[in-house]
Write the structure tokens for this entry.
Amino acid sequence: LGSTRVPLLGSPPSDPGLATLLAMEHGPSLPSDKKHDETLPMHVGSNVVKDYPCSVLWAPIPLVTHLLPFIGHTMVTDSEGHLYDFAGYMPGSGRSGVLKDVGLFGDAVLTIRLEAKEGVQPQQFLEDWDLAVRSGTCASERKVHKGIVSNCHSHVCAVLNAATRSRIPAVPAALGWNILVLGFMVMVFGTWVPSGKGRCFRLWFYVWLLCVVAWLVTGTNPANLFLAQVSALTQGGRL
């Protein structure tokens, strides 16, 4: 990619589209994609995550995550920590389905940091990563949210699959980045976001709230029920 800095999303309207940028980088022989030339304006907030550039971030979805802990909202940051998350395109709105510096469900609680593969210079990795973020976001800007088919995981996977100079862990290297692989990687290899307080409380708040309500209504401490069950299993030789 050379030393040219790839413009980030959210640039002024005069910023060239992805295909135009690629043509400038690689020469006029590269065909132009009209769909990517006509990028849609984005909703822009102020939630820049400078401590976690080039990262995948995961935030709990209230109630949904607490019932199904492996389901959450994934986002991705560029080399400067600008946050991009998929909300879904609304036909006729004239706005991109990807948000910038917003974070639909609040601050992230888990993260995976992407690094340069062996032999790749840091600047080359950063430029390639920014181009991948732009490519994945342009590809997702007109996609309607379809639940488990087209969602925030799809957007992040588009970015990860476009990043050619990042080190790929063993599982996605074998299977490729897809919705299931991304969810597995976040749940198993994601690290807790240390900055700020209350991350664990946010993740499990509704579970604790249900326990408190059960205690008040039935007069039974759920913790005592859990300990009694563990004791019964231990005595029965099943633990």
